[in-house]
# Entry
Amino acid sequence: MTTTTDASGHIPVLLEQVLKSLRPNLGDVFVDCTAGRGGHAAAIAKQLGPNGTVVLIDLDRANLDYASERVEVESGIKPIAMHGSFSSVGRELEARSLRADLVLADLGFASNQMDDPLRGMSFTHDAPLDMRLNCSVGQTAAQFLERLSERDLANILFELGEEPFSRRIAAKIVESRARTPITSTTQLADLVREAYGSRARTSRMHPATRTFMALRIAVNDELGALRAFLEQLALAAIRAHEGKPTWMNLGARAAVIGFHSLEDRMVKRLFVELSQRNIFRLEGKQPMVASEAELAENPRARSAKLRTAMVGRPD
# Structure
């Protein structure tokens, strides 16, 4: 029997690979940009010793509090917790005069978020159509669907979800919302299935999978946040490489775990560009992926790709 959760409600993906590629040392400053349930952070914190520093960032206040307590209990280090998006990591660290030695960004979601019916991220439960990571700000997915034009909706489903029937689904949603607001996960999933028609019976995955993913990415502006994070990472690496003050140390190691092709392409593009400029030294030419043993324990790791780079020294 396989499982996707442990006592924390989540199994951190590619944990062994993260430890191997980041290579934590005593006294390092570690920044977990997407703390989740603290699995990666707790494992790394144990290797930093009493003089290590752990910074945790997360949009989900409940998960951030849980991760902070977990890290302190398991390592003895009281972390610095920042409630917000990793898109502001550079500004937050510079405001605290911190310089990172290790930076990790896991772009996936904690299992407790995906499995919580109240989040509305999954079509396996009938729940309010929310999808927000930070439920205190921004528009819900229901509000998002209410205001989008048919064309914009089709573009989002195609570009963010790579949904082949994006236009058909968008038309079905717009037609339906004219009669009744779309406010629940079941409503949306049923509409997508109707748009698929007979193809729903032969689809490898649930017909609504790509639609839900695309809406979640759009509602949380995940690619925008990733773009801002990567820009800060690049600027910090360049400044460190040039010997200028910034929020990363020379020799710092940065690791990003992506689950979606759009995410991974953005990370790969930046890492390759900086390596060609001798600013980054890449940890292997190909990303690290889950072993068969990990996949047996946690199938959600199947699409995970880990890319790691070190800020190199100037020639």
The chain has two domains: 15-112+222-311, 134-219. Residues 13 and 301 are 6 Å apart (CA to CA). The longest helix spans residues 222-241.
